[in-house]
């Protein structure tokens, strides 16, 4: 498989920042993700409707220390939880971001039952954008037909 990355995104997050679960309905982005500094729990959810793993999630701790990377193919929702202050997250993407086609799934969708390592926050406050707090569940997104094409 030959990959061509068109954009690189970097963000700085403090402990307890949870971003996601994000996707693009059109121009879905394959992503190569790793930690430059600190650590985070990274999650991918399969949104490919005809996949045998549709609706399943995978999570991994990525850190500057363990030097692990993950490639998330297009057709997946993505999110992460910063486990340390001053964590620098880096992703290389295979498609440009298009805000007209941005979407998301609720981070704590009970049907997905993602095992976020909230205990590792040791009482730190969970911090999210207003948009991420009010996302739809996977079932709701299916009914609204607003998942990736």
Question: Can you count the helices?
Answer: 2
Strand residue percentage: 35-45%
Helix-strand topology string: EEEEEEEEEHH
| Outline | globular
In the sheet with the most strands, the strands line up as 5-4-7-2-9
| Spans of at least 5 consecutive residues with low confidence | none
User: Largest sheet, described in full?
Assistant: 5 strands, antiparallel
N→C terminal distance: 21 Å
Helical residues, percent: under 10%
How would you portray this structure in words?
This protein is mainly β. The chain has 2 helices and 9 strands, in the order E-E-E-E-E-E-E-E-E-H-H. It has helices at residues 130-133, 138-143; strands at residues 7-13, 18-24, 31-37, 39-46, 57-63, 69-72, 76-82, 87-93, 102-104. The protein has a 5-stranded antiparallel β-sheet, with no helix packed on it. A 4-stranded antiparallel β-sheet has the order 1-8-3-6, with no helix packed on it. It is globular, with a radius of gyration of 15 Å. The mean pLDDT is 92.
What structural keywords apply?
single chain, 149 residues, mainly beta, 5-stranded antiparallel sheet, 4-stranded antiparallel sheet, 2 helices, 7% helix, globular
Describe the structure concisely for a colleague.
This protein is mainly beta. It contains two helices and nine strands.
Give the secondary structure arrangement, pairings included.
Blueprint: E1 7-13, E2 18-24, E3 31-37, E4 39-46, E5 57-63, E6 69-72, E7 76-82, E8 87-93, E9 102-104, H1 130-133, H2 138-143
Antiparallel strand pairs: 1-8, 2-7, 2-9, 3-6, 3-8, 4-5, 4-7
């Amino acid at each position: 498989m030959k990959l061509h990355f068109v954009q690189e995104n970097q963000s700085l997050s403090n402990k307890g920042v949870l971003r996601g679960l994000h996707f693009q309905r059109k121009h879905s982005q394959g992503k190569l993700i790793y930690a430059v500094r600190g650590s985070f729990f990274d999650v991918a959810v399969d949104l490919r409707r005809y996949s045998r793993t549709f609706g399943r999630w995978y999570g991994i701790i990525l850190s500057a220390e363990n030097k692990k990377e993950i490639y998330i193919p297009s057709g997946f929702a993505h999110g992460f939880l910063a486990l340390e202050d001053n964590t620098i997250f880096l992703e290389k993407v295979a498609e440009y971001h298009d805000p007209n086609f941005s979407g998301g799934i609720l981070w704590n969708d009970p049907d997905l039952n993602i095992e976020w390592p909230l205990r590792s926050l040791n009482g730190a406050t969970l911090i999210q954008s207003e948009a991420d707090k009010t996302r739809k569940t996977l079932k709701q997104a299916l009914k609204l037909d607003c998942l990736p094409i």
